[in-house]
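RECORD TYPE: inverse folding
INPUT: structure tokens
STRUCTURE:
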């Protein structure tokens, strides 16, 4: 079964493009950010546990994310393929994902990284703050999210390059043009 990891810093367009890919290919869109925000909205124990980390732009502890993903694999109908948006975000998460997939006789099919410069990332997230009022889209929190990305998430580039599944797409331009570039390199 095909699975795709959409990779990139905060604001690169992962959520935007993952939604479009899910629509085109009939895949399940799995966004860990959306899953966590939904838990917060519903006021669950998990939501209460992750709220302060998310509000200040910290990563949520690996073990919680791994539990969430295990339950997604157990309960969701993923037979048509899926796109992972925002997971994995650390080497430990990536290693655990490999173990989970291995249990189901799968491995990561492809990783597509959206390349966007930092100035544009900040611009997009501040614009989203005006439109949607997300608590983690303030200037100070964005700085921390970018720092977390550089410290913990960027090393995944080498991890997936070593597995020969890593591809890059230029993430500047219209949403539709970027979508076309992504579709042109997907090898289903
Ligand atoms: P996410 O919800 O994944 O937030 P994100 O990185 O900002 O990406 P998002 O998908 O929302 O934005 P996009 O780039 O599409 O994570 C939020 C928090 O959850 C994290 O900080 C962390 O605390 C926690 N978390 C989630 N997963 C975790 C994990 N695995 N481990 C630990 N913690 C985890 O879009 C940004 C904006 O740009 C949008 O407004 C969009 O409309 C706009 N945009 C997109 N494409 C554009 C384009 N081409 N041109 C102009 N604007 C564009």
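DESIGNED SEQUENCE:
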């Amino acid at each position: 079964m095909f699975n795709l990891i959409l990779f990139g810093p905060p604001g690169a367009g992962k959520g935007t493009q993952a939604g479009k890919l899910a629509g085109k290919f009939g895949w399940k869109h799995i966004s860990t950010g959306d899953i966590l925000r939904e838990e917060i909205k519903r006021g669950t124990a998990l939501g209460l546990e992750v709220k302060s980390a998310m509000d200040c732009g910290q990563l949520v502890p690996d073990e919680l994310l791994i539990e969430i993903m295990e339950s997604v694999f157990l309960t969701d109908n993923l037979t048509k393929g899926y796109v992972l948006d925002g997971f994995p975000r650390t080497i430990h998460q990536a290693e655990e994902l490999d173990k989970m997939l291995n249990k189901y006789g799968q491995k990561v099919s492809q990783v597509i990284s959206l390349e966007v410069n930092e100035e544009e990332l900040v611009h997009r997230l501040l614009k989203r703050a005006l439109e949607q009022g997300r608590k983690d889209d303030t200037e100070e929190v964005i700085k921390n999210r970018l720092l977390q990305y550089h410290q913990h998430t960027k090393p995944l580039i080498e991890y997936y390059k070593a597995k020969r599944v890593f591809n890059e797409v230029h993430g500047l331009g219209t949403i539709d043009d970027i979508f076309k570039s992504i579709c042109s390199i997907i090898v289903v």
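NOTES: The beta strands are 3-7, 28-31, 82-85, 110-115, 166-170.
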